[in-house]
Design brief:
The chain is built from 13 helices and 11 strands. It has about 325 residues and is α/β, with parallel strands linked by helices. The protein folds into 2 domains: about 220 residues, 3-Layer(aba) Sandwich (D-Maltodextrin-Binding Protein, domain 2), CATH 3.40.190.10; about 100 residues, Periplasmic binding protein-like II (D-Maltodextrin-Binding Protein, domain 2). The strands form 2 sheets. The protein has a 6-stranded mixed β-sheet with strand order 1-3-2-4-11-5, sandwiched between helices. Strands 8-7-9-6-10 form a 5-stranded mixed β-sheet, sandwiched between helices. β7, α6 and β8 form a beta-alpha-beta unit. α8 packs antiparallel against α12.
């Protein structure tokens, strides 16, 4: 098994420069191997620290799928989608994975990146609750209860949209804003429910003994994408074929994870020994449900719904086009 380099720090732009140099070579339209120069280095930046939601990328690296595509990939752990967007746009990483909402925000702010493949097709945002304490069957069951929220998060934007779509009287719900402390407050029993992601926050709470159930916001009228692969515009315009091969190799990784989840987890934990075992083991099958079976596809209506949500919240600095500006569907394999 090839040893994968895990970098926490932000790297310099050498990988991007190397990729662009390879992209500009007239002898290399489709295969790095055709150049006789070995593998082209690519820096790939995650949205967060290692978790089972990144298993497909790790598997693609460890099983040599990226090598087969002509790349020597360095995977960096992330510090949030906004940071990854800045790093990709500045050329310090070639490709990254960020939230779909951050794609729109970044592009509207003039950052030099574009989505090249949708990763998670369905938002995992949900109202989490402890089934040993309460039972929620509908959103109005929250009336009179304490709901933990992070008001600056994308989850809260989705919540306000769903509340509007379903004519909820939010004044009848006690929203408790607590930043990153919300999840722990929910685990401690200080909140009746909390907004969170099914494959992340829910699994953390479950690992601490909470019998977590949830109401998925997408079941109440809000169907939007969650995350996407993004590429630096210079990279994708310099060699679109390289980006397509990267997407294809990544899809192979996720296909392996779907078909061999236990083996994939073993590969993941070997490569990322610092990752917590119990919560990530629970997380993977939940994440795969949200991943969908059409990796990469841009469902225009759902991206439009996300765009309209962000526009209504005043989160876009300027009007943007989806196809060709926010994302490029022509690069899909």
């Amino acid at each position: 098994m090839r040893t994968r380099r895990i970098l926490m720090a932000v790297l310099a732009s050498a990988a991007s420069a190397a990729l662009l140099a390879a992209c500009n070579s007239p002898a290399a339209p489709n295969s790095v191997g055709d150049q006789g120069e070995g593998l082209t280095p690519i820096t790939f930046r995650l949205d967060w620290i290692y978790g089972a939601q990144h298993a497909g990328y790790v598997v693609a690296d460890e099983l040599g799928y990226y090598d087969d595509a002509g790349f020597d990939v360095t995977i960096q752990e992330g510090e949030g989608s906004a940071v990854t967007a800045q790093i990709v746009a500045s050329g310090q990483a070639d490709i990254g994975v960020i939230s779909a909402g951050e794609v729109l925000s970044a592009v509207s702010n003039g950052l030099s990146l574009r989505a090249v493949a949708t990763v998670v097709q369905q938002s995992p945002t949900a109202v989490l609750y402890d089934a040993d304490r309460i039972q929620l069957d509908s959103l109005d069951d929250l009336y009179g209860l304490r709901l933990g929220v992070v008001t600056e998060s994308s989850q809260y934007k989705e919540w306000t949209a769903v509340a509007s779509l379903n004519d909820l009287d939010t004044s009848a719900i006690t929203e408790v804003a607590g930043g990153q402390a919300v999840l722990q407050a929910f685990i401690n029993g200080d909140l009746d429910a909390a907004l969170g992601w099914t494959f992340l926050d829910a699994t953390v709470a479950q690992a601490q003994g909470i019998n977590v159930e949830h109401l998925l916001l997408s079941d109440f009228g809000l169907t939007i994408p969650n995350s996407a692969l993004v590429a630096n515009v210079g990279v994708l315009e310099g060699n679109p074929g390289a980006v397509t091969r990267f997407i294809e190799a990544t899809e192979r990784g996720w296909d392996y994870v779907r078909e061999h989840p236990e083996d994939a987890l073993d590969i993941f934990f070997d490569a990322a020994p610092e990752a917590e075992v119990e919560s990530n083991t629970v997380r993977l099958p939940i994440f795969l449900e949200h991943l969908g079976d059409d990796f990469g596809a841009f469902r225009h209506e759902e991206w439009q719904a996300l765009h309209d949500l962000y526009a209504a919240e005043g989160l876009l600095n300027e009007e943007i086009e989806l196809e060709g500006q926010a994302y490029d569907s022509t690069l899909l394999p």
